[in-house]
Specification:
alpha+beta, seven-stranded mixed beta sheet, 3 helices, 16% helix
C-alpha cells in the first residue's frame, strides 16, 4: 500500500487521461476507485479548481483499474459526497464511510465523462472512545439522579377523614 500526502483520484493514478481511456462510447461506464475512511475533520478550502472540502482522518483507497492501493490522512472526494460527511461531523466526533467512484461517458461534459458515487455502506456517525471502551469491556458507572431541594423534602402525610 502506497502512502500518499492526500488521497484524491489523481494521486490514485486516475487523472483525466486514464479516465478518458476507461470511459468511451463503446464502454460508457467504469468503476474507478473505492475509498473507505473515518473522517474527524472537514475543512472548506479554495483551490484553482474551485471550492472543495478537505477531509482529515484515516483513509484507504483502491484504483479499480490497476489494483493499486493507497492510504492517507487527508482525502478529497466529490463535494456532493463530502458535504453530507461535513454536516454529520457537526453532531459527531467522527464519521465512517465507504464509497465507489464511477465515471459515465457524457458528450455534454467538457471532459467527456461525469462522476457517480455508490455508497458501499451506510455512512455512520461514530464515537471512537465509546467503541474502544465497548471492545475492552469497560463500562462507566451510571450517574445517580441529581439531588434537588425538592427531592430532599419528605412527602407530607395525608390526613384521614373520619366518617
Amino acid at each position: 500500500m502506497e502512502i500518499v500526502k492526500k488521497l484524491t483520484l489523481r494521486t490514485m493514478n486516475l487523472g483525466k487521461i486514464q479516465i478518458r481511456k476507461a470511459v468511451t462510447e463503446e464502454n460508457p461506464t467504469a468503476s474507478l476507485a473505492k475509498i473507505v475512511g473515518r473522517t474527524t475533520t472537514a475543512q472548506p478550502v479554495q483551490s484553482e479548481q474551485g471550492e472543495s472540502i478537505r477531509l482529515i482522518g484515516e483513509f484507504n483507497g483502491v484504483n479499480l483499474l490497476t489494483g493499486e492501493a493507497f492510504t492517507s490522512t487527508t482525502c478529497f472526494i466529490p463535494n456532493f459526497v463530502a458535504q453530507p460527511l461535513a454536516n454529520a461531523l457537526q453532531e459527531s466526533e467522527s464519521v465512517d464511510f465507504a464509497i465507489e467512484i464511477t465515471a459515465k461517458y457524457s458528450e455534454k461534459s467538457a471532459v467527456g465523462y461525469e462522476f457517480g458515487v455508490k455508497p458501499l455502506l451506510e455512512t455512520k456517525r461514530t464515537n471512537a472512545l465509546q467503541e474502544l471502551m465497548d471492545r475492552a469491556g469497560v463500562a462507566l458507572p451510571a450517574l445517580a439522579a441529581p439531588v434537588t431541594e425538592e427531592s430532599n423534602i419528605a412527602p407530607i402525610a395525608k390526613k384521614k377523614k373520619i366518617a
